[in-house]
Amino acid sequence: MKRRNFITASLLGITGVAYGLGSRSRAATKNVMSVPARPNKVVPPGPRGLIDRAKAAMATHQDILLHTDRIGIADYSLHSAKKRFHIVDLANGTSQSFLVAHGKGSDLRHTGWLQKFSNVPGSEASSGGSYMTSETYVGKHGTSRRLKGLDPSNNMAEPRAIVIHGAWYAEPEMIDSYGKLGRSQGCFAFSESDLDIILERLGPGRLLYADKI
């Protein structure tokens, strides 16, 4: 099977099985592999438009991606108290879901809801669109992963230093205390306890897609 057809077929399988679009056949259900390690699970229900956009992004950028076996999807339609970042395994339709913070400039009143995206330097806002994961480095937030913005909506990601990193304000305890996560300066900030698996599963050359419906 050609590479493009394989990717499209895999993503279509996720759309039907993981997002509950249309009827679920017994065969489709059997194809979802059960992985014992938490938090692996079938991709949770979500808006059809988001997975469709992620599919389109994969097709658009597949020639420059080093790996197309996994994709990271940030569903910024959801409140920051929800596990809205999904690492999707395209081969078997399973996913792992995590908390992720958004930028201060995207939520000026700190409601927990992302209100807007921005690609402007100094905005401290999250940027929507397609990213390619790059190398790890050690900076002020510890081990982090650089990101390259692939779309006009996020092509300033590198000069803005928009990266994946761990942060104290992205810990579950923040939700227990305040009902929401803290805010980043536009980066994808995760719990320190989740960071290692995210860095490993989204190694260099994979697609990370961020959007809201």
What would your notes on this structure say?
It is built from five helices and nine strands; from the N terminus they run H-H-E-H-E-E-E-E-E-E-H-E-H-E. The model is unreliable at 1-39 (pLDDT under 50). A hairpin with a 2-residue loop joins strand 5 and strand 6 (142-149). The protein is an alpha+beta fold. Helices cover 24% and strands 23% of the residues. It has a nine-stranded mixed beta sheet.
List the helices and strands and how they pair.
Layout: H1 3-17, H2 26-30, E1 40-42, H3 48-61, E2 70-75, E3 85-89, E4 94-98, E5 129-139, E6 142-149, E7 163-166, H4 172-178, E8 188-190, H5 192-201, E9 207-211
Parallel strand pairs: 2-9, 7-8
Antiparallel strand pairs: 1-4, 2-3, 3-4, 5-6, 5-9, 6-7
Helix pairs in contact: 1-3
Short description:
The protein is α+β, with helices and mostly antiparallel strands. The chain has helices at about 5-15, 25-30, 50-60, 170-180, 190-200; strands at about 40, 70-75, 85-90, 95-100, 130-140, 140-150, 165, 190, 205-210. Strands 1-4-3-2-9-5-6-7-8 form a nine-stranded mixed beta sheet.
Task: Please give a handful of descriptors for the protein shown.
single chain; 9-stranded mixed β-sheet; 213 residues; alpha+beta
